[in-house]
Amino acid sequence: MSIDPENPPPRFISPSPESEFYWRSGADGKLRIQRCGGCRRWIHPAGPVCPYCHSRDLAPEPVAGTGTIATFTVNRKEWIPGFEPPYVFALVELDEDPTIRISTNIVGCEIDEVAIDLRVEVEFEHNGDWFVPLFHPMVHATGDD
Ligand SMILES: [Zn+2]
After folding, report:
1. CA dist., res. 86 & res. 1, Å (int)
2. pLDDT digits (tens, 9 = 90+) for 27-39
3. How far is the CA of 22 from the centre of ligand 1 (A)?
4. Is 109:80 a contact under the CB 8 Å cutoff?
């Protein structure tokens, strides 16, 4: 896929040819991470060569889209146009491989609810052909919904 100048990436997205799938993946509601066909390691951010075994047999594979907040910062100034402060930047460790850390925003909760080790799951901010992966706190199965 090539990038349509009429429909540029939103916000901070700057996709490379290898990572563009990541920003498109949410079209079917699934998060995808690049995976090596040689050593089966997950690779993020995506690149042209596996950093572990140097294979070029790389392809996106769906992941559960669940993880844990490893670290976060609260931004209260509008450093980036389009971001309404306050907002939370976080690194989310994926359940498939905690060494994979997704830089993202935490949404769908109060700032005070965001915490290290909070369980989160992906959602997508749809913007034209782009689907920005964001994470919200995982809903607990309490049965009183
Ligand atoms: Zn590999």
Report:
1. 34
2. 999 999 999 999 9
3. 19
4. no
Residue type, 75: N
Those residues whose C-beta lies under 8 Å from the C-beta of residue 106, and which sit 6 or more positions away, are 69, 72, 88, 90, 114, 120, 134, 135, 136, 137
Position 142 confidence tier, pLDDT thresholds 50, 70, 90: low
Q: Which residue has the higher pLDDT, 130 or 78?
A: 130
How far is the centre of ligand 1, averaged over its atoms, from the C-alpha of 25 (Å)? 22
Separation CA 59–CA 37 (nearest Å): 7
CA distance linking residue 98 with residue 64, whole number of Å: 13
CB atoms inside a 10 Å sphere around CB 18: 16
Residue 68 CA to ligand 1 center (angstroms) comes to 24
Report the separation in Å between the CA atom of 67 and the middle of ligand 1, taken as the mean of its atom positions. Answer: 22
Percentage above 70 pLDDT, the chain? 84
At 23, which amino acid appears? W
- d(CA 2, ligand 1 centre) in Å: 26
d(CA 139, CA 145): 10
